[in-house]
Design a protein that fits this description.
Blueprint lengths: L43 E6 L13 H4 L20 E7 L3 E9 L21 E7 L14 E6 L5 E7 L3 E3 L8 E6 L3 E9 H6 L7 E12 L9 E6 L17 E5 L2
Parallel strand pairs: 1-2, 1-12
Antiparallel strand pairs: 2-3, 3-9, 4-5, 4-10, 5-6, 6-7, 8-9, 10-11, 10-12
């Protein structure tokens, strides 16, 4: 999600209070071990370790995925009082790569035929999104703030990846080294599968003490209403950022991924 399609409300006032519950496959994060600053319980997800290497084909049909717990029902519309369509997210690692998968229920999948070189095609499409941060994304310090990173993947597996520098300076020329993705349309929506080298995440200083601050989102788009040009845009999130308007680019929209050994 980028500012061209969002209503931003400014920096959040809480410190990583990320919350509508839904702890996925997790127990409590040790506050001493986590690298984030918490004043409240932080929703988190355990990225389990498996020996299997999934083929990134978008099908999510390998046996290893059946052994990995899902966030599943944790996804919701933070800014709309209605039930969100089902989104299932899973992830694991094999010490070398971080694997992730989305299974999306969507009766009306919006996807463009042609892909623009600047990757802006994704702005008008259904998609799933992952944000990664090594520190705060909205509270500058005298030493500044580290960049954070986003990948947005459409139903065809095409990627818009970019880095973000405070304050909301997007660099779409940035590429996540080694990222592989694939998307497949299904009878009920679409699936997305991806793989990121662990060394790429570590080089960006995103995994600290086995914890990575992560936002997990979905852009749920529908055909434009009669007489309008733009699609109907709705926003789904793992964590409720508690902002008055849709906004993922705040600390309060992130949870924590704990990498198990």
């Amino acid at each position: 999600m980028k500012k061209s399609f969002r209503l931003f409300c400014g920096a959040a006032t809480g410190i990583f209070t990320v919350g509508l519950v839904g702890l996925g496959a997790a127990g409590a994060v040790d506050a001493g071990a986590a690298t984030v600053c918490n004043q409240a319980a932080t929703p988190h997800y355990d990225v389990v370790k498996r020996a299997d290497k999934a083929a990134v084909d978008g099908k999510l049909d390998e046996k290893v995925w059946s052994t990995v717990a899902a966030l599943s029902g944790d996804f919701h519309f933070p800014w709309d009082a209605k039930e969100a369509p089902l989104t299932v997210f899973k992830a694991y690692h094999d010490s070398t790569d971080f694997y992730f998968g989305f299974e999306v229920t969507d009766p009306q999948v919006l996807v463009e035929k042609d892909w623009k070189p600047d990757e802006s095609t994704v702005d008008a499409e259904d998609r799933v999104e992952l944000f990664f941060a090594g520190g705060s994304v909205d509270k500058p310090t005298p030493k500044g703030m580290p960049k954070y990173y986003a990948i947005e993947v459409d139903p065809s597996g095409r990627v818009h990846d970019y880095s973000i520098e405070y304050y909301r300076k997007f660099d779409s020329k940035w590429k996540l080294e080694g990222l592989e993705t694939k998307g497949v349309k299904t009878e009920t929506g679409y699936t997305v599968e991806g793989k990121i080298p662990m060394k790429s995440l570590e080089a960006l200083e995103l995994i600290q003490n086995d914890v990575m601050r992560t936002g997990v989102y979905r852009a749920e788009f529908s055909a434009p209403k009669q007489g309008e040009k733009d699609p109907v845009m709705e926003w789904i999130s793992w964590v409720d950022p508690k902002t008055p308007a849709p906004d993922y680019h705040v600390d309060s929209s992130f949870g924590a991924f704990r990498f198990l050994k």
